[in-house]
Amino acid sequence: MSAVLVVHGGAWAIPDELAEASVDGVKTAARKGFVVLRNGGSALDAVEAAVKSLEDNTVFNAGHGATLNIDGEVELDAIIMDGRTLNCGAVSSVKNIANPVSLARAVMEKTSHIMLTGKGANLFAESVGFSTVPTDTLVSEFERKEWERHKTYVTGVLEDFNTQWAHDTVGAVAVDSSGNVACATSTGGIRNKMVGRVGDSPVIGCGAYADNFSGAVSCTGHGESILKVTLAKLILSHVEQGESVADASQLALQYMGERVQGAGGAITVSPSGKWAATFTTQRMAWAAAENDVLWSGLDPNERKKENLN
Amino acid sequence: MLPVVVVHGGAGHIPKERAENSTSGVCSAVRSAYLVLQEGGSSMDAVVEAVVQMENSPYFNAGCGSVLNVKGEVEMDAIVMDGKTLGSGAVSAVRNIANPVQLARLVMEKTSHACLTAEGASKFARSVGVPEVSQESLITEYSRMRWKKNLVPDANPVECQMGKMGTVGAVAVNKEGNVACATSTGGMLNKMEGRVGDTPCIGSGGYADNQSGAVSTTGHGETIMKVTLARLILFHMEQGQSAEAASDLGLAYMKSRVGGLGGVVTVDPQGNWAARFSSRQMSWAAAQNDTLHYGLYTGEHFRRSFSEQH
């Protein structure tokens, strides 16, 4: 059983100036995560490693480089899920944490809960030794400028999804050599969002889902639309009905577009190692590692191939 | 067949001394919600009406009467969803308001978001004129007593939780065939601060879609989330299962795959409904064709005409 890892760096109209950095970022993350799999590590370890890499990269809207809420602060959401046990960990609206995906994992492994929010999530982080980082280190110059530019959310989000200026969520899915699947998603949310706004990313079945019986999914795009159709679970329900991962993703994204006029993207992997990177936005930065090959793409139908080593 | 409304007051083990209040509470809530529908109101109005009543009652784990977190404080979660538009509003870990379900509805109607949490939810509440209430007004002697008992190191709040007090919720379908759901809770007894369960998570605590039906869930939150119970039941209905069969399938899967117990109220756009639970009890009531249906223990199904004296 050969392992596979797929990562995404957000589905949106990624401007040309950020294109190269975005694709480089997802390729780096894919490489990092795949090393874990190659060394016999679990799908869970691999997705965490990949997403951490994306969180540390300021070009993406997660951890470092996250967008600011209306008050100019950074509130982060993340989720991680284990397809074998259906165990899950999530945090919403957490502050001053460099790697929310790792905090989400700690919720899963060190508490009897699945999701912690706000101050409670931060208290837990402290209790298990996560260091806090000052907001300034998470905020990039670019995001500070964008926050000032977009004073109102409504124009912000509609504009962002139809034009250039929206960063987005990051995520990863993997299947390891034991056939276990896992997923992880992390985000700073929507620029100029209301304080405490929670999107799809940390909501199980929406921003992500993993089940050894069907597969693992991580989603990106317009959060409120993804929530309305429980996108990750919808994709996997199509897989359970016999669709391929590519068709399942396509069907679900199409439905989201028709039913609630939302655009987005998803990466999906099956327990047998089939994978897909699908999106209805202008672009999505993604990369997939399997065997000795690293695939990547940005524009629709684009699929570049290179040697993993 | 239409309209229909079904409400639940929580799944688990309801102690005898609280059973009567729980049953009369759900019956009263369903009666009020039914009136809303009979007068041509929306299914959203109906489910919110039912849940507000139960939040206001001290006998349910929602609003007043909510269980306390480990620090002895009340943090509440709620969700509403409109089956026509798939529009949804939710709040998580919100404090000091009397009716989280109403705040959830306001999130849906007055913002472009679907969920607000903690401080942000309170900030929004203030901005739309929802009054702040004291912690004390939400805390009952009973909930404080249960909290103290469970502070003892070897107490098992999950075990005690598998009953005692439960989340509240409602589903409805109006004369036009529009479905809606609403769920509200104080969460899990002695939960960690900031713990969010299934209730405000769309697809887990509730889901509504005019194309298949509406579900509101109750029970062990974390296991409901793992199987996204509400959405799971509706997937079964989309594939042709009845409301009752789909609910049973969902609950059985939750039990066998992740070992959790719970209950659901389910309705389809044609007015078929079910109140099913894998836990020992669930207080529930339904209204259809001028008839009140209700029950508490497994297998119970009482009927009474609405024109009878209650």
From TrEMBL, chain A:
EC number: 3.4.19.5, 3.5.1.1
Catalytic residues in the record: T169 (nucleophile)
Pfam families the record matches: Asparaginase_2
InterPro entries in the cross-refs: ASRGL1_meta, Ntn_hydrolases_N, Peptidase_T2
Keyword Protease found: yes
Site entry (Cleavage), positions: D168, T169
Cellular component GO terms held in the UniProt record: cytoplasm
GO annotation, biological process: L-asparagine catabolic process via L-aspartate; proteolysis
Top-level EC class: hydrolase
Keyword Membrane recorded: no
Keywords carried by this UniProt record: Autocatalytic cleavage, Hydrolase, Protease
Annotated residues for binding of substrate: R197, V198, G199, D200, T220, G221, H222, G223
Family the entry assigns: Belongs to the Ntn-hydrolase family.
The protein, known as: Isoaspartyl peptidase/L-asparaginase
Organism: Oryzias melastigma
Automatic annotation (TrEMBL), chain B:
Protein name per the record: Isoaspartyl peptidase/L-asparaginase
Organism: Oryzias melastigma (Marine medaka)
Annotated positions binding substrate: R195, V196, G197, D198, T218, G219, H220, G221
Active site (record annotation): T167 (nucleophile)
Taxonomic superkingdom: Eukaryota
GO molecular function, one term: asparaginase activity
Family as reported in the entry's similarity comment: Belongs to the Ntn-hydrolase family.
InterPro entries: ASRGL1_meta, Ntn_hydrolases_N, Peptidase_T2
Site positions for Cleavage: G166, T167
A GO biological process held by the record: proteolysis
Pfam families assigned: Asparaginase_2 (PF01112)
Enzyme nomenclature, EC number: 3.4.19.5, 3.5.1.1
Keywords: Autocatalytic cleavage, Hydrolase, Protease
Known catalytic reactions: Cleavage of a beta-linked Asp residue from the N-terminus of a polypeptide; L-asparagine + H2O = L-aspartate + NH4(+)
Broad class of enzyme this protein falls into: hydrolase
GO cellular component: cytoplasm
